[in-house]
Amino acid sequence: MTTITYPLSRIEGHARVVIDIHDNEVFRADFQAMEMRGFSHYVRGVPAEQITVIVPRICGVCSTAHQVASVKALEDTFGVTPPPLAQEIREVLLLGQLIQNQATSLFIFTMPDRTNASSLFELSQTESARAREFSLAQMALRIRKIGTDLISLAGGQFIHPIKTVIGGVTSGIPREKADKMIHTIEELLPVAVEMVDIYWDMSMEMGDRIGSWGDDEPAHYLASTGANDYRLNSQRLRVMLPDGTEAPSFDPHDFANYLQISESEYSYAGISSYMGSVVRANSLARINLSESLGTPIADAYRKRFVQTFGKPAHAIMFFDICRGIELVYALEKARQMLECDLEHGETEVGYSPKDGVGYGLVEAPRGPLIHHYEVEDGLIKSADFVIPTVHNMLAIRRALTVVAKRYVSQDGISSELERAVGRVVRAFDPCIACATK
Amino acid sequence: MEPSNDLPKFAVLQLSGCSGCEVSLLNSEEWISNFQLVYMPLVVTSNKIPDDVEVLLVTGGVRTDEDIHNLRKGRSRAKKLIAVGTCALSGGVAQFKDDHIASEAFRQASHRLRMPDMLPHAYPIDRFVDVDLYLPGCPPTPELFMTALKDPEGAKIPAIVCQECGRQKLNDMRPTAITGTRSGVVLPDICLINQGYVCVGTSTRGGCGALCTRPGHACVGCRGPANPYLNKEPKFVIDNLRRVFTRMTDIPEEEINAALESPWLSLFLDQFTDYTQDTELPTRTKEKML
Predict the structure, then answer these.
(1) pLDDT band at residue B4, thresholds of 50, 70 and 90?
(2) Domain CATH for A342
(3) How large is the ipTM?
(4) Do B274 and B229 contact (CB within 8 A), yes or no?
(5) E strand or H helix at A367, and its extent?
(6) Pairing with A234, which of A285, B34, B136, B218 sits 20 to 30 Å away (CA)?
(7) Shortest CA gap A44–chain B (Å)
(8) Overall average pLDDT of the A282-290 stretch
């Protein structure tokens, strides 16, 4: 038995791929999370109302989703309904995170794979990139920063936001600041569209070159965005079966009846399945489960995607393309929302803390995230974090097995395998800090 | 790959942390034209730190035996090493509670086959290597990153957060109860302590631009204690804060004490100071603090 280990770069956190090969046949491929955050243990006994400041630190990449999910879980426990204006501002906040995350995954993590470059910065120095009128790296970081600025605007702080509180948000978004943000978005939206086009073309070329978009068997898809309403501040979970039909949706309270989560001996991350089946979350799941995003440019991209690749689309690299569609959507949607009055009106309601159990759901960039708390005597008795990356673990493992079999033959192991392994994992954009909460 | 330019080389080594520091660094594009990024697994595929690195930024705490190995290797290849963020300076959020049951549950869960061993604690990096500069913050702002890379010696860091806050401290506005984590309407331009919020900006190192307090959110102290409290036990910071609240408010003493000992503050306050009980750590001088 030969064991090959590939450490992974250009993903969030420390992980590796391990492939066991016996007589030139792939025996097993595994994706292993190499660190453990352990927050579910450490937050026990913390005063419940303070947990919303602590849990964003599970992950600096996904902090916004954790903060909102945490607040929603306590609102569920205390029986509080935040006012509509607060819901809108939380949506802007989550759009900011989607922009930041999709721009990072698209340009920093996966664009270099399209030309076998080691990084976006190296890619920017190639002849074909120089021929463009702008620096890919600088533009990528500038687009990404719109997400960060939106998080600051709607969340009060640029990485670990603080404005979302139990009962609502602490303040509205002043007209002047909203207008400034709209101006920046209008300036950079055409650049983002051009970058997504470049990315799409590069991906088509790569697909032709390697002769595959990452084939794998069809899977189930899990998302909490709607068919015609792409709201990230979401309420229910939806599932698409491999043939494209939709299973009954479910409430976050019932997640354990549908999602089975277990631990692994070979990784610090858990593994979940949808009623025993391989399930996929993240961009492709949301696009497969959508009929319309509700913004013009993104809907045109979505139409092109469905016409080119079908619905549901199953190949692995489609996750990346869908992230491009979502980046454009989030920019367009943020502009739309900022044009409305987010300054005047009730931003929060009062509440009385009480003991009980609560669930908070949001659609994080990587899929549905649920925080589930049990509060006793005002303290956290137990905290469970249902993590999007964990939903994808079986799917990642299966896709890695498929790709390993493609590049391991009687002639030996192809040198393309390492790159292929990186492309597959990055398509799922796993977050190891979250997965080992 | 051909060496693309002769800009100074810098590298980023991430130990056990949340990537928030890296995310902050990526919010600045200024370094692209000033430095050459040669190693940072989050954004560059490169298996090892080259041995001619000018500056190595280390984020995250030491949590596994692999972290120790990578940290020592990184140190030997860099001329200058900067410890970045709460976790590198203190071990990190992952050890903010001294709860035996939780630690035991964590220890049991953190044993897996073919995985790096988890250490019993998360350690600050200067327990294992020499550090040339400390850059505290959770995370440090992009501007602070640029200062650390470009001109740390010439930097003028405000002593405390209040110096950049712009909110006015009033003598005749004395709250009688803590507003706590629950919010009310925050009045503009007036000190948050005058409004009953548990803001610890008065004892917290400046340099962040007061980015939380200016829009109306109490400082949680993520930049760590100001210079007078370096290398001192946590109680010195807490005592100073208690004096501030006694002087500026009419909140009962027990209520102040309970608020100052709350976990969300100990997250930062203790973390930056509890290392003082670790005799294996070097003394941190204010000259090395950014």
Answers:
(1) low
(2) 1.10.645.10
(3) 0.88
(4) no
(5) strand A367-376
(6) B218
(7) 7
(8) 98
- Find where tokens 């207008």 sit: A179
How does pLDDT run across B80-91, given as a tens digit for each residue?
Answer: 999 999 899 988
Q: What are the Cα distances from residue A164, in Å, to A40, A156, A313, B155, B257?
A: 21, 9, 36, 34, 26
Q: Is residue A171 scored above 80 in pLDDT?
A: yes
- pLDDT value at B276 more than 70: no
pLDDT tens digits, A92-101: 999 999 999 9
CA distance B111 to B114: 9
The three-point CA angle B195-B200-B203 to 5° equals 130
Residue pair B237/B226 in contact (Cβ under 8 Å)? The answer is no
Instruction: Grade residue B2 by pLDDT with cuts at 50, 70 and 90.
Output: very low
Q: Do the Cβ atoms of B97 and A42 come within 8 Å?
A: yes
Asked if the Cβ–Cβ distance from A165 to B139 is below 8 Å, we say no
Whether A406 and A212 have beta carbons less than 8 Å apart is answered as: yes
Smallest CA-to-CA distance from A14 within A390, A361, A432, A401 is with A432
Cross-chain residue pair B115–A266, CB shorter than 8 Å: yes
Number of domains in chain A: 1
DSSP 8-state symbol, B169: P
pLDDT in tens, A31-54: 999 888 888 888 888 889 888 888
Q: Which domain holds residue A279?
A: 2-423+430-435
pLDDT at position B3: 44
* Sign of the dihedral through C-alpha A107, A270, A46, B103: negative
Q: DSSP string spanning B76-90?
A: HHEEEEEEEHHHHHH
Hey, what domains does chain B have and what are their CATH numbers? Answer: 9-155 (3.40.50.700), 162-276 (no CATH)
A231 pLDDT tier (thresholds 50, 70, 90): very high
Q: Are A57 and B61 in contact (CB under 8 A)?
A: no
CB B21 within 8 A of CB B140: yes
Q: Which residue among A11, A58, A266 sits closest to B18, beta carbon to beta carbon?
A: A58
Q: Residue B42: its chain A contacts at CB < 8 A?
A: 9-12, 108
3-state secondary structure of B225: strand
Per-residue model confidence as pLDDT tens digits over B41-57: 999 988 789 988 999 99
Interface contacts A/B by beta carbons within 8 Å: 195
* Separation of alpha carbons B238 and B260, rounded Å: 7
Q: How far is the CA of B224 from the CAs of A66, A254, A365, in angstroms?
A: 24, 42, 31
Half-sphere exposure of A98 (CA within 13 A, CB side): 33
Give the B window 33-52 contacts with A, CB below 8 Å: 37, 41-47
pLDDT digit string, tens, across residues A119-164? 988 887 777 777 676 788 889 999 999 999 999 999 887 777 878 8
Inter-chain contact B263–A119, Cβ cutoff 8 Å?
A: no
**B188 vs B214: CA distance, rounded Å:** 8
